[in-house]
């Protein structure tokens, strides 16, 4: 297992070398340790903790307090990964000072960078956070915190206007000092165009294969998510089924008096 810390510059170097990389979400120390063992270079403590871990319908109810709590846990499990903490809805909307204060809290919880959703006015907020010495990851396209404005979880950037806006926002975020960009839920040709247009690495989710990196939610990747998977996700394991089978086997063994046996008892 590597003991060389991954930095924002390493991601940039991977883009320059045309070496695709991955980022995976984590919300707790157990998954963070496993991702570290797999030498996943970047871990995102995403506000998707809301729907995947806390049972909310969307990411909108997630608070800074919750983000800091999960960020601290992940930081304990992955000392050498590049750790990115999501700024939750409402944590950078009220003022630039509020945004900087919340970004500082995430860094003090062990994050090396923060992620903000959106372009437009968010660019100025990102620029100020970068000025304060905190690396910023942008996030464009189907930004889940804008679900109500979009009228649902819909692919973004299909019209010529939206396409231009996303390209402009990507360039503006790069200009503001963002070190990378998540592109979510956009047509693959738009993601490819953004990836060509900026020199910072793009990280796609539902954005096709031409981004510099790809990100997946850990519970999708591991097959823990129940119900239909998003079109863009692939389960590389079926841990959810194994959890159910293990819990059933435990209950059956207890009912039949097979567990605990003498070997698992104290004498
Ligand atoms: O919160 C999250 O998990 C994210 C990824 C889907 C990029 O923002």
TrEMBL record:
Catalytic activity: (6R)-5,10-methylene-5,6,7,8-tetrahydrofolate + 3-methyl-2-oxobutanoate + H2O = 2-dehydropantoate + (6S)-5,6,7,8-tetrahydrofolate
Pfam families: Pantoate_transf
Keyword line: Cytoplasm, Magnesium, Metal-binding, Pantothenate biosynthesis, Transferase
Keyword Secreted (UniProt): no
Location in the cell: Cytoplasm
Binding sites annotated in the UniProt record for 3-methyl-2-oxobutanoate: 47-48, 86, 115
Cofactor(s) required, per the database record: Mg(2+)
Main location: cytoplasm
CDD domains for the chain: KPHMT-like
InterPro entries named among the record's database cross-references: Pantoate_hydroxy_MeTrfase, Pyrv/PenolPyrv_kinase-like_dom, Pyrv_kinase-like_dom_sf
EC numbers for this chain: 2.1.2.11
Highest taxon of source: Bacteria
Recorded metabolic or biological pathway in which this protein acts: Cofactor biosynthesis; (R)-pantothenate biosynthesis; (R)-pantoate from 3-methyl-2-oxobutanoate: step 1/2
GO cellular component, one term: cytoplasm
Active site positions, chain numbering: 184 (proton acceptor)
Family statement: Belongs to the PanB family.
Name this protein carries in UniProt: 3-methyl-2-oxobutanoate hydroxymethyltransferase
